Amino acid sequence: MAACSVEDVLAKAEQDEAERLKSITVVKELDLEFDVGNLLALDKNPVELRGRDREELLRALARDNVQLLVNEVWKLPAERTDDVLVVKLPETTTRLPREKPLPKVKPPTKWEQFAKLKGIQKKKKTNLVWDEVHKEWRRRWGYKRAKDDTKEWLIEVPETADPSEDQFAKRNQAKKERVAKNEFNRLRNIARASKTTVPALGLAPRAQQSKAELAQAVNVARTSTASVGKFQDRLPKEKAPRNTGKKRKFQPLLGDFGNEKQKQLELLKVMETKKPRLDVTKAVNKQMREDEEEEGRARRRKGAGKKGERGKRSAAGGKGRGKGKGPKGGKGSKGKGRSPHMKQGKR
């Protein structure tokens, strides 16, 4: 092992200390471009790799550039907060790409579409309301909210309700139904936003069902078979379901503004034209139909005229037979009593 003198050890220690505590002043041929808002520094100086260790060179460049960036940060105004210096970074000047795509805009719900159409503005409510029972300010929703009816130990039974009915269980059941209804509406909004068909309800969960709702539930249950109710037998005295035919399609009230605009423009175009629009095929068919109807009426008039002449002849023959003196005509003359078709020819 080679002997080391004290001078060599001290020189090496001074060199390491100088390497660790380098000067904060860094000289570059070309000034760096800084974007302090993004803590970004752009170095356009050329790099010489000939005869130098690559890792050592890159480490030295990173140290110098970070030192210049820190110098720029220290030039900003700073303030002390809880014994810590805080610097507010300026606005960014470099547009950096996102790591992930932009989130899609959440589609509006049915109520939001209706409110936008009618101009209904959403009013923000305060979180605290005054509770008259406890005489203090409480939260409007959630735990320990104001006017919390679930904490009541006594409930008045309505006059129209069954005296033996449990009002506490009824209130809990009503709350569960409200929660289920809100959840169903939320899922239906999601299905509408994703353009997914929502199955129709057979019977809504209610305490009392109307006659129309029961009929709808029976119809849905009947058509739930593999044959869509084709071979399902009817109950005795069961009426045929109503409104099950083809439904008329109406234009939606919201959304399709392009189609509505196109129809309005076509209507204005028709109103502005001086000459009426003529459908040749429709006009020819109408004329042919009118000609056929006119020919039919003429044939019927002609047939009615022939029947009238025959009726007059038969009436005249019956009159002669009634008044003649012949063997078949009574008192009338021999010639008058005979029918026009029974006249004898000359011998």
What does this molecule look like?
The chain is mainly alpha-helical and 347 residues long. 41% of the residues lie in helices and 6% in strands. It has seven helices and six strands, in the order αββαββαββαααα. It has helices spanning 6-20, 54-74, 110-118, 167-193, 211-222, 257-272, 280-323; strands at 33-35, 40-42, 78-81, 84-87, 128-131, 136-139. The strands form three sheets. The chain has a two-stranded antiparallel ribbon with strand order 1-2. A two-stranded antiparallel ribbon has the order 3-4. It is elongated and about 160 Å long. The termini are far apart.
Topology of this protein?
Layout: H1 6-20, E1 33-35, E2 40-42, H2 54-74, E3 78-81, E4 84-87, H3 110-118, E5 128-131, E6 136-139, H4 167-193, H5 211-222, H6 257-272, H7 280-323
Antiparallel strand pairs: 1-2, 3-4, 5-6
Give descriptors for this structure:
single chain; 347 residues; mainly alpha; two-stranded antiparallel sheet; two-stranded antiparallel ribbon; 7 helices; 41% helix; disordered C terminus
Average per-residue pLDDT, rounded, comes to 79
Task: Using the CA coordinates, give the radius of gyration.
Answer: 51 Å
User: What is the tally of helical segments?
Assistant: 7
> Uncertain runs with pLDDT below 50, 5 residues or more?
322-347
Helix content: 40-55%
Strands of the largest sheet, in order across it?
1-2
Describe the biggest sheet? 2 strands, antiparallel
The secondary-structure element order is: HEEHEEHEEHHHH
Q: Quick one: overall form?
A: elongated
Give the N-to-C terminal Cα separation. Answer: 178 Å
